[in-house]
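During the reporting period the student researcher (J.K.) took over the structure-prediction task from the postdoctoral fellow and processed the backlog of single-chain submissions. One of the processed entries is reproduced below for the supervisory committee.
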Amino acid sequence: MSLTSRERSDQRAFTLVELLVVIGIIAVLISMLLPTLNKAREAARETQCMSNLRQWGMGFMIYSDSNKGQLPRDGDDGDKSSKPVGVWSDQALWFNAVPPRVSGKAYYDLWLLDRNKTQSMPNTGDNSIFVCPSAPRGIATPGQEQADGLGYFMMWGLPTATASADQRRTYFCYVFNSKLITATTERFKYSQLRPSSEVVLMLEKMMTPGETKPAFSKSIGRAKASWERASTRHRKGGFFLFADGHVGHLTYAEVNNAPRAPQDYNQPGKIIWNPRVAAN
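J.K. obtained the following structure tokens:
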């Protein structure tokens, strides 16, 4: 006796219980896979971050070789009108001087493209030598600096050497080591960065006030940084570019456990911020 079409359809269909079991199994599998996928994504972002810093390292070396061994200018903090980063178009400032050495654009040129509405300034998530792929949009510390609604820090600089400072949008995840400067105007030569495997050339900086608690510095929107503004985006720490070109990872706790008495922030054997400062 043949089955009716309705009876054949009932035999092929899932029951409600079976459907719920399948959905439950899929949900369990997804919950098991998500942590692995997230770790894989972060590992890929860390690889890209390290690659960015290595490009900076190559650019610094090429610039130095072309300029009698000198490093580019680090500029001033840029978070106040009284401390402008320098003349925006100065081709000796690190953010203008180094990127063209590795087929990138000077930051001033990126600003011109943005002003002309040809290309937006680099920001979070962009594929740029200035951007860490894990970094969020910039958030200013109230009373210390300014950031706009898109997450750019509004930094002070000079349109010309004789003009008053103005504010422009910036997004630097990687910055010059601020301790590679002394009370004099003399710039370091690359050959003076010794031991080169320990002297920090660049580092990832914090992009939001809440990234590190407690933070040593309230002002994070500056164009350079040291241990006070080191990032904690990657495994409770960040990546550092050393003068010999290698990139290393240090946690925030490791960077901030030196005695520093009263102006000593070096940790010989691990990390040197200023080769001219005698370590304890």
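The committee noted the following: The chain has a mean pLDDT of 87.
J.K. will present the remaining backlog at the next meeting.
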